[in-house]
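[User] At your convenience, examine this fold.
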Amino acid sequence: MKKYYMAVDGGGSKLISILFDDSLNFVSTGRGGSINGNFASMDEIKKSMLDSITACLPEGFHEPIQCCFITMPGPAELYVQILQSICPVMEMKRLSEGSICLLSGIQKKSGHVALSGTGSGAFIITDIENVSHLGGWGSLIGDEGSGFDIGCKGLQAAIHSYDTRGPKTALEEMIRSYFRAEDFLSVRNILYRTPTYRSVIAKLCLLVLNAADLGDPIAIKIMENAGRDLAKHILAIISRDGLSADKADIVTAGSVWKRNPYMFNVFKQDVLAVHPTAIIHKPLFEPVMGSVVYMAYQLCNEVDQPCVDHLKEQFGQFLIGKG
């Protein structure tokens, strides 16, 4: 009889659930909105969880979930409670954000992670359970190099262009058009009246990347500075923890790194300038796949190339650039 597991990853903009079996075969997936209690109300969090769970579980599914692996800044117990109203949950295990990023990124148990999604941070992981963290102070006082930070700086550059306080940038027209606004006074009003402003601003990161692809020097500089900020995170945590970075695996993780050579190249350059033997990786899978890779280690003791090939075949929609 098949046994079933769930991988759950949530943050400031979305919640992803994956149902898979004990042969590491994909069954189904579902998505919801933000579950970060610092920026979403409890009612919004409950709705996001219910949306993700109901979209993930096949119609009529009531089989026991052997273990629900959860990574989120929100109330994991609430997620399990909602899930248990549909099917039994035998065990819940929380995995750190750094751990799932490492496992999904390079399928290793030890290494370094530079995270840039809605928020940002750096991690050093030794054997999955031992995780050191730096950054992640939130959008009001930190999260440098994050999607929110990039989106906010892109918005500021557009406003300065509009006000003639700064150089002209393609971001001015791109952001105005994005909000379908007549001018930036209307953009301001839209933002200040939106409770989920943080995720809205973080989504502007993609416009900054698009402007960079068009050769806009302001957008390129914003992206390059974000790469420098993440390099500072990694260099600081290595220095703080007093660990050797000789031939260390350092993986980038999070949506902001996708198809973003401006940020990645500067990050790599700055890290290698201090630790020239470090190995900088781009991730293979989305972070949510870290829980699936964790389970692969439990079932197989090692994750070799045939195992990785199987995961790529089964979970292809979660390959970076594919989903």
About this structure: The first strand starts at residue 4 and ends at 10. The domain at 104-140+224-281 is CATH 3.30.420.40 (Nucleotidyltransferase; domain 5). The CA atoms of residues 154 and 277 lie 34 Å apart.
